[in-house]
Amino acid sequence: MPFSEFTHLDKSSSPQMVDVGCKVSTERRALARTIIELPQEVAEALDCVGMRSSKGSIFDVAVIAGTQAAKKTADLIPLCHLIPLDSVNIKLCRKGARRIIVECRVKATHKTGVEMEALVGCSVAALTVYDMCKALSHEIVIGETKLIEKTGGKSKYCSEETKA
Question: Is 131 marked active-site?
Fold first, then answer.
């Protein structure tokens, strides 16, 4: 891909924030997903305590952390636009005995997309699960984080798994 296609680089290859001033505000949506793999001892311990730790409900705290992170994406990723989000919806669910799926849906009416907010939201929610379970094992794996779907503006993206 030639450098001219990287929107965050100017003609001299210096970093720049993309100018969205002339764009029209439209409803933008994004869905991202992170997969967490638990070691057997963590999965068994969570089954015994009903997904709670001494710090509180693991999923509830992860939802709050992920929501807060999505709202602060522009503070974390230097060239992201500050976007007033209409909604952030984070869901965590067990898939089988040893896997947790984290999904983050974000919506905003703005001039640029919200996929970074969705990716940051599910990533931080997953990190929060790790933080709340690390006393049991450091073998927890935060695996694949990916954009599943993005709509609004000129482009639409659906991952191969959503097309199937």
Answer: yes
